[in-house]
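Supplementary notes for students who missed Thursday's class. We covered one full example, reproduced here. Read the sequence, then the structure, then the short commentary at the end.
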Amino acid sequence: MMPYNAQQYWQERYKELGAKYVGPINSSIEEVEQRGQVFFEIMRPHLEGCRELVALDFGCGVGRMYPHLAKYCSKYVGTDLFLTDEFKKLTQGHEEVGFTSSIIFQPEDTFDAIFATSVFQHIVGPLEFVEVCGLLRRIAKPNAQVFIIDAEFTSDKMASHMLTRSSENFETSLGLHIHTINTFHSGVSRDKNGQQFIYGRIIK
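Structure (token representation):
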């Protein structure tokens, strides 16, 4: 078996599936959008009263979370391995929106909020996970909000490049004070696993 190359894997998947590449295998566009709506509803209570956030959508994909988050943000930056046509079209003309394929050069203490939906579970290597968390911590402001949604647990039905992590891993690697942990199901029948929502704030 060839070693997992994230850039190659996701670009090939996007080329084959288009906007559906962000969902489970054989998902429809409607199911992809449904998952985004359900994810937002889980996060919404923690966004009440928030305005003018400088937000990072880590693993933004086709931008499915942007329409839900836009009203809470004065600046929204999507980041992923590559820019999709869907993200470009969705955010065209919105001056508050940016995109970057790397967070390395983002200034320290920039973001009020970090959103990561169905992305950490694809960072399998332990050293890579710690490195990514360190970068996110650096560019987050003190007390920044962090919203994480991943599969609830690792199962043998998952692809080999997927691995879920405990809340303790995020506490340690992000320097995160966790306020809320919820489990839920997206309502999409193709989702074999439940989802886990972690909400907390960066302690610096």
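Commentary. The chain has one domain: 6-202. The first helix runs from residue 6 to 17. If anything here is unclear, bring it to office hours.
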